[in-house]
């Protein structure tokens, strides 16, 4: 980060924000402010250019047609590519995760080019849609507690050699490949199938994004009792299906 202000960019709330994904922006913003940071949040609609000077970019999920429109506009815009080239941190959910990969299947049943910012390829799953609560163990190299979230997707995502699976599932589907992986990440770009909103359910991931953006190893602790109560409720939901 080049100055004391954290620039948080939420990409395309008009197209990509299902299942409360907007909550991810609220959580990052709040946790940054709780640490005394000055946050400039920019919500970028799909008819606006993506700013290239952000520190953290968030992209949510969406239905198949908005997902195609978002991919077209992000490819044409090029701002997110430049931001990642500048070292920005990106956190993406579901449709947004698929868009960050090399390609996915669009609403017309065609292969749609993604942004190629994360080494994943998504295809259309042949089986039942993946829907429900998920519990997964995050890659131990990240040192984070288990991931909880809610998934709802038809796409199945294969992680390539230049990305690592974000987590391995205990309950639920995640990437849907049958290999137990969920999500993917590289040094600065993260993708997950988890809605929820996922950062409200996993505030330690929001803190991880902040640490990467600030280039620090630790942040002052904050009161996480409400988050923890939500986490425990949703872990119970994932592990004791009705
Ligand atoms: N349309 C995509 C799929 O079904 C993503 C859905 C979502 O973002 N929830 O795979």
TrEMBL record:
It comes from Streptomyces chilikensis. Forms a heterodimer with MurT. It comes from the Bacteria. Substrate binds at residue 129. It catalyses: L-glutamine + H2O = L-glutamate + NH4(+); beta-D-GlcNAc-(1->4)-Mur2Ac(oyl-L-Ala-gamma-D-Glu-L-Lys-D-Ala-D-Ala)-di-trans,octa-cis-undecaprenyl diphosphate + L-glutamine + ATP + H2O = beta-D-GlcNAc-(1->4)-Mur2Ac(oyl-L-Ala-D-isoglutaminyl-L-Lys-D-Ala-D-Ala)-di-trans,octa-cis-undecaprenyl diphosphate + L-glutamate + ADP + phosphate + H(+). The keyword GTP-binding does not apply. The lipid II isoglutaminyl synthase complex catalyzes the formation of alpha-D-isoglutamine in the cell wall lipid II stem peptide. The GatD subunit catalyzes the hydrolysis of glutamine to glutamate and ammonia. The resulting ammonia molecule is channeled to the active site of MurT. Residues 8-202 form the CobB/CobQ-like glutamine amidotransferase domain. The gene is gatD. Its EC number is 6.3.5.13, 3.5.1.2. Pfam families: GATase_3. CDD domains: GATase1_CobQ. Belongs to the CobB/CobQ family. GatD subfamily. Gene3D superfamilies: 3.40.50.880. Pathway: Cell wall biogenesis; peptidoglycan biosynthesis. The lineage of its organism: Bacteria, Bacillati, Actinomycetota, Actinomycetes, Kitasatosporales. Keywords: Cell shape, Cell wall biogenesis/degradation, Glutamine amidotransferase, Hydrolase, Ligase, Peptidoglycan synthesis. InterPro entries: Class_I_gatase-like, CobQ_GATase1, GATase_3, Lipid_II_synth_GatD. The active site is at residues 94, 195. This is Lipid II isoglutaminyl synthase (glutamine-hydrolyzing) subunit GatD.
